[in-house]
Write a structure and sequence with these properties.
Catalytic activity: (9Z)-hexadecenoyl-[ACP] + malonyl-[ACP] + H(+) = 3-oxo-(11Z)-octadecenoyl-[ACP] + holo-[ACP] + CO2; a fatty acyl-[ACP] + malonyl-[ACP] + H(+) = a 3-oxoacyl-[ACP] + holo-[ACP] + CO2
Helix content: 25-40%
CATH superfamily of the largest domain: Thiolase/Chalcone synthase
CATH class of the largest domain: Alpha Beta
Keywords: Acyltransferase, Fatty acid biosynthesis, Fatty acid metabolism, Lipid biosynthesis, Lipid metabolism, Transferase
Number of domains: 2
Pfam families: ketoacyl-synt, Ketoacyl-synt_C
Family: Belongs to the thiolase-like superfamily. Beta-ketoacyl-ACP synthases family.
Distance between the termini: 22 Å
Number of strands: 14
Strand content: 15-25%
Structural class: alpha/beta
Strand order of the largest sheet: 5-4-6-7-1-8-14-13-9-10
Number of helices: 13
CATH architecture of the largest domain: 3-Layer(aba) Sandwich
Shape: globular
Radius of gyration: 20 Å
Protein name: 3-oxoacyl-[acyl-carrier-protein] synthase 2
Order of helices and strands: EHEEHHEHHHEHEHEHEHEHEHHEEEE
Length: about 425
């Protein structure tokens, strides 16, 4: 059975650097950080007091205030990014669209943590009668896909994958396969997250995973730099419209890129400590799926979280997967500006990878003041300044707790 080709025809995005694709991309190219002191709650007693918060977001541009009150913020972000991607793709303008052939796969790594936290407090203080009837559907991860399907009447597959920080990439890759093997013609896919809550920040801080550079938030996320001391939490959503190639061409759709390959692997090593062989295997599987040779890849949107172990490990994985060609890759971490969106990271970084390919520009890795060459971080990380360059093939890496890995391969059409 020959696989059908899958292309990207719509982009949607909410992040700390912008609440739409155009502003987010412009801020990335300008090297503008979205990291600041936490305003969502009083974090003065916490080890980490900084995060990449979404600012100026108005969910009522997408759904009614009444509906918005019935769901956690991660669902707000996912719905907004999905509806923007659908609008960008022009799906509502397709006459006679067969909605039984349109599906949604948007996941989250953690889901409704703020709502769970708030409801737990209400329960402890006021008893069971304080638990609202919309608590459960307001915090379930698959309800992003559920709401988008209901709003748009899409009757194809509706689900959300949960795989920690690889969630967004896995959702996009799996949705692509739904199209490849004929289960859908169009899929709306990506990831969303809103875990900037006392439980979320406190939990990651207790693992010593977060940066504590509280006095200088904008430079706290510094992938591959000698001074990196942990990741910075971000929030938001990134969603793509994926479409079967002939279906897109027939209707004259704008095609941003082809989703040429998807690879997965497991470290089978440790729940949090990385090893290089697993991610390398995921990259190799993705390139094999795409039918792309390593030396055809020009750009890598890296997982690049700004952790001492993780950044060096990903560099080693790229060396394993690409061999000598690793030194010719332009590698960047947009997390230096957005922070780490956890389950939403693979979604927003897929958007950025596609835009890099579409515009032939690599965003910078900001805050790379002193590259950690002695620590093994000795590749080209597009330090501090965006770069005009030829990009034939771009890949986006996502790695998650439990040793789960995902790589997406995009190429020009």
């Amino acid at each position: 059975m020959s696989k059908r080709r899958v292309v990207v025809t719509g982009l949607g995005h909410v992040s700390p650097v912008g609440n739409d694709v155009a502003s987010g991309w412009a801020n990335l190219l300008a090297g503008k950080s979205g990291i600041g002191t936490i305003t969502r709650f009083d974090a003065s007693d916490m080890a980490c007091q900084i995060a990449g918060e979404v600012r100026g977001f108005d969910v009522t541009q997408y759904i009614s205030p009444k509906e918005a009150r019935r769901m956690d913020t991660f669902i707000h972000y996912g719905i907004a990014a999905a509806l923007d991607a659908i609008k960008d793709a022009g799906l509502d303008d397709i006459a006679g669209l067969d909605k039984t052939r349109v599906g949604v796969n948007i996941g989250s790594g953690i889901g409704g943590l703020p709502l769970i936290e708030e409801t737990g407090v209400d329960l402890m203080q006021g008893g069971p009668r304080k638990i609202g009837p919309f608590f459960i559907p307001g915090s379930l991860i698959n309800l992003i896909a559920g709401h988008v399907s209901i709003i748009k009447g899409y009757q194809g597959p509706s689900y959300g994958i949960v795989s920690a920080c690889t969630t967004g990439a896995h959702c996009i890759g799996d949705a692509g396969r739904m199209i490849q093997y004929g289960d859908a013609d169009i899929m709306v896919a990506g990831g969303a997250e809103c875990a900037i809550a006392r439980l979320g920040i406190g939990g990651f801080a207790s693992m010593k995973a977060l940066s504590t550079r509280n006095d200088d938030p904008t430079t706290a996320s510094r992938p591959w730099d000698k001074g990196r001391d942990g990741f910075v939490m971000g929030e938001g959503a990134g969603v793509l419209v994926l479409e079967e190639y002939e279906h897109a061409v027939k209707r004259g759709a704008t095609i941003y890129a082809e989703l040429a390959g998807f690879g997965m692997s497991s470290d089978a090593h440790h729940i949090t400590a990385p090893n290089a062989e697993g991610p390398a295997r995921g990259v190799q599987n993705a390139l094999r799926d795409a039918g792309v040779n390593p030396d055809e890849v020009d750009y890598v949107n890296a997982h690049g979280t700004s952790t001492p172990l993780g950044d060096a490990n990903e560099t080693n994985a790229l060396k394993i997967a690409f061999g000598d060609h690793a030194r010719k890759l332009a590698i960047n971490s947009t997390k230096s500006m957005t922070g780490h969106l956890l389950g939403g990271a693979g979604g927003v970084e897929a958007v950025y990878s596609i835009l890099a390919l579409h515009h032939q520009k690599s965003p910078p890795t900001i805050n790379l003041f002193e590259q950690d060459i002695e620590g093994g971080c000795d590749l080209d990380y597009v330090a501090n300044t965006a770069r005009d360059m030829t990009i034939r093939v771009a890949i986006s890496n996502s790695f998650g707790f439990g040793g789960t890995n995902g790589t997406l391969v995009f190429k020009r059409v």
